[in-house]
Write a structure and sequence with these properties.
single chain, alpha/beta, Spo0b-associated Gtp-binding Protein, Chain: A, Rossmann fold, five-stranded mixed β-sheet, 4 helices, binds guanosine-5'-triphosphate, binds magnesium ion
């Protein structure tokens, strides 16, 4: 199961307290101050990782802490700093602070973000001695580490998003266009979570395709699997809208999906859209012509496809790469 949203409380380490002690040994019973400083609390960092499943670690672990600094001790012993904690999130995640509304986009594996800072260690009494006070009994307390309430959402970074009603043939296309092997079935809601695949390109890097679960009317109100998976196509460059050519009410199908996109985020409607009339091998040529005529009124960017027609698949790849 793909975990694509988690809420976490992150609490950096507290600083260790400074010590308030005095030298005591066989020679001196009333020596000067010798309390050491406390160590700093550990920080918490967030780093990107190229692993779509990375959030699964935080499915049950809801509070993330870093180690507290160790307190100072006598004989001017400094406390050690607390160890830092690293939270690894998949590239493409958005991290937001629920209170301050700050947002961090995790876009690569090299950026390491300091998300909460550990508290500074307190100074021991040795640091407070002065000409006027040779025997300070005072030492600082360590500062409290920062705390935040974070929401981490994964938005897959795909170039091309496959959308459509259940059973439209989205996963089948992912299978023939890319290296992926998604589950395919002749029933609705075969796909329960997004699949990614890479389509090789002769020019430059391959293109990443995302296949998401089918949408139905009312998905934005929670019907079927809902629209939460649409977040994964928010960052794509182009949407490939799959419509099953064997269906009778093509226009209604098109509008249903467009309407759910709109209800999720209106800006999805302005993304370039390629409409694919799928499973063309199952219908007659006149039927195809009729459907194309209907769809052309809705979107000029349209082509028919069958997973059994290698020529058409080649054409489709070229068209997608051009986007
Ligand atoms: N004849 C024919 N069958 C196809 C074609 N494309 C897909 N199918 C069949 O249509 C059915 C549904 O295909 P899927 O790829 O699972 O459909 P989906 O859109 O991913 O469905 P959900 O995951 O449920 O949303 C399967 O039985 C496929 O074998 C095609 O071009 N021709
Ligand atoms: Mg599918």
């Amino acid at each position: 199961m793909l975990i694509d949203e988690v809420n976490l409380t992150v609490k950096a380490g507290n600083g260790g307290n400074g010590a308030a002690t005095f030298k005591r040994n066989a020679q001196t019973s009333r020596g000067g101050p010798d309390g050491g400083n406390g160590g700093n609390g550990g920080n918490i960092y967030i780093e990107g990782i190229n692993d779509m499943q990375a959030l699964s670690e935080y499915r049950y672990k809801k509070v993330i802490t870093a180690e507290d600094g160790i307190k100072g001790a006598k004989q001017n012993l400094y406390g050690r700093n607390g160890k830092d904690t690293l939270i690894r999130v998949p590239i493409g995640s958005t991290v937001s602070d629920e209170k301050t509304k700050q947002v961090w986009e995790i876009e690569n594996e090299t950026q390491k973000i300091l998300i909460t800072k550990g508290g500074k260690g307190g100074r021991g009494n040795n640091e407070f001695k002065s000409a006027t006070n040779q025997t300070p009994t005072y030492a600082e307390k360590g500062e409290v580490g920062e705390e935040r309430f974070l929401k981490i959402e994964l938005k897959l970074i795909a170039d091309i998003g496959l959308i459509g009603l259940p059973n439209a043939g989205k996963s089948s296309l992912l299978e023939v266009l890319t290296n992926a092997h998604p589950k395919i079935g002749n029933y609705p809601f075969t796909t329960l979570e997004p699949n990614l695949g890479v389509m090789p390109s002769t020019k430059g890097r391959g293109k990443i395709l995302a296949d998401i679960p089918g949408l139905i009317e009312g998905a934005s109100g929670g019907k079927g699997l809902g629209i939460k998976f649409l977040r994964h196509i928010e960052k794509t460059i182009v949407l490939v809208h799959c419509i099953d050519a064997t269906n009778a009410q093509i226009e209604k199908e098109y509008e249903t999906v467009r309407n759910e996109l709109k209800n999720y985020n209106e800006s999805l409607l302005s993304k370039p859209e390629l409409v694919l009339l799928t499973k063309s091998d199952l219908v007659t040529q006149p039927q195809i012509e009729k459907n194309l005529k209907i769809l052309k009124r809705l979107n000029k960017n349209i082509m028919t496809i069958s997973i059994y027609d290698d020529n058409r698949l080649g054409e489709l790849k070229e068209r997608l790469i051009k986007f």
